[in-house]
Amino acid sequence: MTSSLPSLAIPGQRLGSVTTFTAGPGTHVHHSHVYASIAGPVFVDPAQPKSQAKSTISISRTARVKTTPSATAASKSKPKYNTLPGVDSVVLARVTRVQKRQATVSILVVLDESASSKALNPLQSASDNDNIESILSSAANPENHSSSDELRFQALIRKEDVRAVEKDRVVMDEMFRVGDIVRGTVISLGDQSFYYLTTARNDLGVVMARSEAGNMMFPVSWKEMRDPVTGAAEQRKVARPF
Amino acid sequence: MASTAADSTAQAAPTAPPSLILPPSQFARLQPHAYLLAHLSPPASSQQPSLRANGRSPSQFRITSANTGSLTHTNGSAVVRLGDTTAVCGIKAEILHTEDIPSWSVSHSSSSLASNKRRKLTSPAENLGADREDGSEETDDDDDSYIEDFSLLVPNLSLSTGCAPGFIPGAPPSALAQSLSHQILSLLRSTRIVRSKDLQIWYQRPNLGREELEVHNEDEQMDVDVEQDRSGGATPEPREIKAFWVLYIDIMIISLAGNPFDAAWLSVLAALRDTKLPRAWWDVDNEIVVCSDLVSEARKLSLRGLPVASSFGVFEADAAAGWRAVLIPDAEEERKIADSERKGIRRRWILADPDGYEEGLSLERVCLVVDRDQGGSGEVVIVKLEKNGGFAVDRKELKQLVEISAQRWEDINQILGQC
Amino acid sequence: MTDRRRINGPPGGTRPPIFASSLESTSDIVAERPQRQRQPNELRKIFLKTGLIPSASGSSYLEFEPSTSLSAARSKPKSVIPPSSSLKLACTVHGPKPLPRSATFSPNLVLTTHVKYAPFAGRRRKGHVRDASERDLGVHLETALRGAIVAERWPKSGLDITITILEAEDDRWWGDAPDSHDAAWGMMNVLAGCITAASAAISDARIDCLDLVAGGVAAVVADETAGRETTSQLMLDTDPADHRSILSACVVAYMPARDEITELWLKGDNSKSSVGTDNRGLGHEALIDGAVDAARGAHSVLAEAVRESAQRFAGLPSGDFT
């Protein structure tokens, strides 16, 4: 069944009939056939033996190199970043502005699609959506450091989406500060310029923050972080460390 | 996944939070400063050498290659790759008629005597410089002011090529592109690398009364002028400049991954070495300058020296330095840094040929342009030194950088020699 | 007039060099006119490589094989005037990235294309500001690609495609005076190259496409063949420098998997050729078919380059996944 499939497909390559396969990521259907829409290795996710579902055919967007992440492997394979944030995506974002009713963040990394679908779909597990080599070469725009935020997707965390309890007593200044790195999930694609994020879960919130003195702080409770040098505590909506 | 590497990176970084484990690529993106610092100062127990995130040692340049003459419609061209930064330079020569120069008739042709006098006045100083640079070569009594006065060298660098995200294609040159173009122009002028003589197109007026002038030999040009002066200037100047070659030097940065200046300058250098100008003369009947299309008659430029640029970035361990105002380190702090250095804990690194990632993390930059006397065998001459953005690089460090740049000169000399 | 953001040349302007040989009677240079050495349906080789620019999400570099006359002139240079030139271009893809703040909401991927000649790309120096022909190329390229991209998979985001042409194709042989048949024939070859290169770069960026879209050119040319009267003939992948006069030409962007044309551009007067020679094989249909054939040829190179880059990307030699 799968033996007739190519190991590697290029866009426009016919992979099989829709009577035997369901089109997964990286493919599309045309004239009742599944075609590849990106170049990469072909995967078939076999259907449950009892169920009516057909096998899902998909093309990996990420290099599935199982070797140890040594320097040689990194230079050989070049996964590229082009994962868009979607609803339920977990993202890491930097806070760029804190206002009374909302905080503005710019999305740095899109993590796994969602924790639940991970087991079902092995393709998304390798969510390392950027490799060292391309980060090292591109990095910041030499022109103007602030404008690199223009190249990133912007998102808002509204006051009511910060935490699940005591929503009405949220003071944004005590939740986030500019420069913090926040883990959040996308709840809506939002309007033309912003996605909407939520941090209303124990594992979501600030994961990295610097104190007023400029030192990296460590979390002490779900709403406090501490500077290891000065010992001063600051308020944050802290993500539960794993 | 990549958790093993992440572990070591995270532990190596003293500022990283203890709880979070990230794959290196995410760590590099979220905490660039800590990431680079972790690479440069590995834990003493690990026995690893201090390497940059890109695997280079602090004074190591990226692999450099140069390829010349591949573009058909240019007088000279070069493709230079400096790691992942790629610069393409194409030189096109066009002709500037002296009649198109508004100030020409006033300052030159009408008073050839004056211009000769001026030349003589300026020549001693110029000869000094020329002697030093060219050594045994013929003394250089060129009037290089032509190049500057009439903009005979026109370098322009373009970053609107999609070379990196953030440069809008089709937009006017960005501040960085403008600044790079001007740096190249000023270096072309200050090094006097192109000789004005190579760009002049002369006309030998047939002079029936003086048969010795009928043989026009380039080498006798000065003799003729001098003779003319001696004879009192009663007869009109038999030779005059009718036109100049103008070199349009365009540099397209095709891929930008840090240190565009070194790549751009090297591409200009390689393209100039590749440039051939056709033989050109004044056609009296048509009153235009006409060129010969024979390759055998075309001449290469005779360049002065080989100035090679080396750029450096300074990375400081104190993360706060990056986002707070730069403070002048006082004597106390300097002493501390020196102390810790003696103990083997380095707090700052000077990184040669920084890539894009490192450029974003270093405020202080040094650019050195060096050359060697007598075609490479003589002393190292600093042609240009530019340093800005910080206080870390002192006299001692600069001396080291000059040494590194001199070594770099040797490498580049070899690379250019092969293409 | 003066551009303060660039370094300007002499204010009075400069003139491109005039060669003595082009002023004299042209009897002795006729022999040097480049001749097409390929069969009418034989294509030039294409060099195509992806992923050379790491800071871009996708990139490609494309080069046409130099013609026989050009490679001869390269190896044994006699004249400083090149007999012809061969296309060289670099393409980068940036994105998907956020749309500018001023943009309205878009549920689809917004495609932006820019084509720019390097100032030294052609026989004549090009200006730094994009001219009409460059804008035109950008628009043609956009339509060619828009039909191939699965845009709804990338909501709210933009994709910038930038092409820098390092060496362009001539519009005619340099020794010929511009005449009535003259048009920007070289531009059509450039467009075909842009389409193929952009398709490779988009694929390198892993943007969903219906198919790899390739560009191809065909033309009806009238050449004097050794003293006899001129005959019109259909040729694929024409190098304008090889031909005395091109009557009409066509460039297509073509997706072989679906047998679909996403962009078609026909130029020149082709009624005359088909009527005058009583040859139905030179009509529009034949011209388009020829261009499609040329595009098929380019597609095989494109597919090979994309497959090679996918293998590199997967870090595996072919055949490891079954």
TrEMBL record, chain A:
Keywords: Cytoplasm, Exosome
Subcellular location: Nucleus, Nucleolus
Residue span, Exosome complex component CSL4 C-terminal domain: 84-189
Principal location: nucleus
The keyword Cytoplasm is annotated on this UniProt entry: yes
Sequence ranges assigned to domain Exosome complex component N-terminal in this UniProt record: 8-45
InterPro entries listed in its UniProt record: Csl4, EXOSC1_C, Exosome_cplx_N_dom, NA-bd_OB-fold
Protein name in the entry: Exosome component EXOSC1/CSL4-domain-containing protein
Source species of the chain: Aspergillus lucknowensis
Upper lineage: Eukaryota, Fungi, Dikarya, Ascomycota, Pezizomycotina
From TrEMBL, chain B:
Biased composition (Low complexity): 1-14, 104-115
Stated name of the protein: Ribosomal RNA-processing protein 43
One Pfam family this sequence matches: RNase_PH
SUPFAM superfamilies the record matches: Ribonuclease PH domain 2-like, Ribosomal protein S5 domain 2-like
Domain Exoribonuclease phosphorolytic: 60-124, 146-278
Family of this protein: Belongs to the RNase PH family.
Keyword terms: Cytoplasm, Exosome, Nucleus, Ribonucleoprotein, Ribosomal protein, RNA-binding, rRNA processing
Segments of skewed composition (Polar residues): 56-74
Automatic annotation (TrEMBL), chain C:
Exoribonuclease phosphorolytic domain mapped to chain residues: 42-207
Family label: Belongs to the RNase PH family.
Cell compartments where the protein resides: Cytoplasm; Nucleus
Keywords: Cytoplasm, Exosome, Nucleus, RNA-binding, rRNA processing
Pfam families: RNase_PH (PF01138)
Organism: Aspergillus lucknowensis
InterPro entries in UniProt: ExoRNase_PH_dom1 (IPR001247), PNPase/RNase_PH_dom_sf (IPR027408), Ribosomal_Su5_D2-typ_SF (IPR020568), RNase_PH (IPR050080)
Region listing for Disordered, in residue ranges: 1-22
Identification of the protein by name: 3' exoribonuclease family, domain 1-domain-containing protein
